[in-house]
Amino acid sequence: MPDDQAPRRSRDPEHTRRAILDAAIAEFAEKGFAAARVDDIAARTSTTKRMIYYYFQSKERLFAAVLEEIYGGMRDAERALAPDVLPPAEAMRRLVEATFDHHAAHPEFVRLVSVENILEAKNVAASPAIRGRNAAVIGTLSAVLARGEREGVFRPGIDPLDLHMLISGFCFYRVSNRHTLGAIFGRDLREAEVAAAHRRMAVEMVLRYLAPVSSAK
Amino acid sequence: MPDDQAPRRSRDPEHTRRAILDAAIAEFAEKGFAAARVDDIAARTSTTKRMIYYYFQSKERLFAAVLEEIYGGMRDAERALAPDVLPPAEAMRRLVEATFDHHAAHPEFVRLVSVENILEAKNVAASPAIRGRNAAVIGTLSAVLARGEREGVFRPGIDPLDLHMLISGFCFYRVSNRHTLGAIFGRDLREAEVAAAHRRMAVEMVLRYLAPVSSAK
DNA sequence: CATGGTTTGTACTCGCTGGTCCGTACAGGC
DNA sequence: GCCTGTACGGACCAGCGAGTACAAACCATG
């Protein structure tokens, strides 16, 4: 067998494909789809533009592959969650925190989803894999919600998808709009203290929204 | 004076400039910056590409002018708010509703801000007008917040900018990510019923977040 | 009705960029 | 050693698209 440690250079399709994909993630996340340059993606790798077309056929398909890849990364984030053993409020807190952390740790993901929205989600719409994977989140949320309702710690009548949007909205927005917010209000949202405060905020906002007490109308 | 009713065609700089700006707003909002075509902007007007360069010098400056314009549109939305006469909770509700309505009614605004974020807000950063205008929102929020706190209907210690992000985040996200959300979950967020429910949600979320009762930790 | 500045139109340039042509090198089966 | 398919590379091309050269109208003056 060849040595695994040393970089077995050429003739490694897996490695080449992966390298192109990583370079494409960085390039598309930085510049968006139209402004991204295939030549620049090639320059980020140790291979050539020809290889990009060899493995991915076109710039569009490459971008579609990038989306599949980063949406796939969310699956891992979800799986790390403690499932049904925790009390509902605690499970919900962890869900919110995991969502927050994933967005904060992966600004490329956020940017690429923004880019895809400007493209009107034509790639996501064409990918059953992405659609299915994400729709699963709703199931998890729904289960926790139902359990919490049964135990009387959450109020009834909450739509899981609406709740998902409430959670993701804040987590997404503070990353996607980091630059305009930073320019307008002069606060760097990447600072650790700000991020920690927002993380607590997100949890509190959700738990208060779900609380059964009908104090706020 | 010339007739105001009939279309006084050429030799109308104001009208020409305005027409170009409107066309540019539509084009940039639809396609983003890099994918937008100056020729297509010209085609959306009754004038020519030459005029775009005559009035705006370059594609970049045209985009900067577009941003100034749409951010300016927010000022009008704010002014319609009842100021300090209402009770704090009611004032806050109106603020949230106005924010929600503005985003829902102006998807171009949302898209253009998304595009600007992909450009890392370099245009907003270079425009003191935009920065100043928007920072003013915080003042309004801050005042309502302080009054509510004094009257005991809001809890203390809420940062106005954080609150602004909480409100805008949801309103922005459901428009900016309309397409991916629609593709993944199969729900059209433009439907009147869904929008109405989300509007109520936004208000409730904010009021619950601000409520002094310390039921949720 | 000259005159000069402003507004508008046409036809062009020219660099850039997605995509391809044609060829080489490598590995394994026989 | 030969042969076939897979992995790779560099040079090239064609069309697109931002920006401009060159005027021609137009309008307000004197």
From TrEMBL, chains A, B:
Q: Which domain of life is it from?
A: Bacteria
Asked if the record carries the keyword DNA-binding, the reply is yes
Record GO terms (molecular function): DNA binding
DNA-binding residue intervals: 37-56
Any Pfam family hit: TetR_N
Q: Which UniProt keywords apply?
A: DNA-binding
Q: What is this protein called?
A: Transcriptional regulator, AcrR family
